[in-house]
Amino acid sequence: MKRGKSQYPYNIFIGDKCIEIERILKILGVTLGRDLSLKPHVAIKLKKAYAKIAALGKIKRLVPSDKMISFYNAYVLPHLM
Known about the structure:
Structural class: alpha+beta
Helix content: 40-55%
């Protein structure tokens, strides 16, 4: 018995149609990889958080620091939880 990644592609047929296996599955707001890992979910969350941080970085000279902290708490932290 071999453990690890299979080198053989699996084909699932319904009738005469081949069903393609997706690389990721999004269910109940959580994105799972083909191997049921959370790597895609974490990557998506980080991408969204980095985009918000970049947007805040563009306005940091225009907004007082106490407001920037409020913006960070309101717009960035929810993507990391």
